[in-house]
Structures are given as C-alpha cells and as structure tokens.
Write the structure tokens for this entry.
Amino acid sequence: QVQLVESGGGLAQPGGSLRLSCAASGFTLGLYNIGWFRQAPGKEREGVSCANLGERNTFYADSVKGRFTISRDNAKNTMYLQMNSLKPEDTAVYYCAALATVDTSVQQLCVHGNFEKWGQGTVVTVSS
C-alpha cells in the first residue's frame, strides 16, 4: 500500500533542533519530488521546503531558510527535514509529500502544493 509516515515531531525549546523523518512504502521515493509542508492552527498551509530528484534543486521558505534542511536516504526510502534554531513560530503540524517528476521548478511545487502523496502529519511544538 502506498504510504508516507512521519515521525520525529514533539516538543523543542527555542533555539533547539528536531529531525523529522518520513518513511515511504509502496513506491520508490527516489523517483519522486519531495516536500515538507506545515500548517498552524487558523493559518494556511505553507510550503516549507521542496526538492527535485537527487536534490539537484531545493527551495526553502524565507521563514526557514538557513535553519532547515531537506534531504533523503534512498536506501532507506525515507526523507528528512532537519530543523535547527527553532522558533515558536515554527509550531505547526508538519506534513511530508511526494510527487512524480514533472517539468516545473521546486519553488512552484512548494507554492502550489500539488503533491499526490501525503503523510498523516506530525506535531512540532516550540515553546519554553
């Protein structure tokens, strides 16, 4: 069965770090564009970071640039979001996503969020 399962969320203090994982099953993640999105209560979904095949190109929202890193391990069929220097405004439900390769920019992928596969979400809370 095609599935994306997130893990690694939880509580962190401002300035701390978390690494989110997203394990894919039922398909080969290395053949897909990948993305991380988040949604805070009462706010619109935001594209945090997206990458194309082999992470040849990556996109980061201005709010996370320099602090977050998207990556994947094809041997484990898993994608990651390393989050450093966390801020309270990073608090949200984070979703991983995958999309078969298309001829478009990773920025457009993240802005429009037209991904075909989505994880269930993992809660990240940044608070002292």
Remarks:
- Residues 84 and 128 are 15 Å apart (CA to CA).
- The two ends are 39 Å apart (CA to CA).
- The chain has a mean pLDDT of 95.
- The longest strand covers residues 92-100.
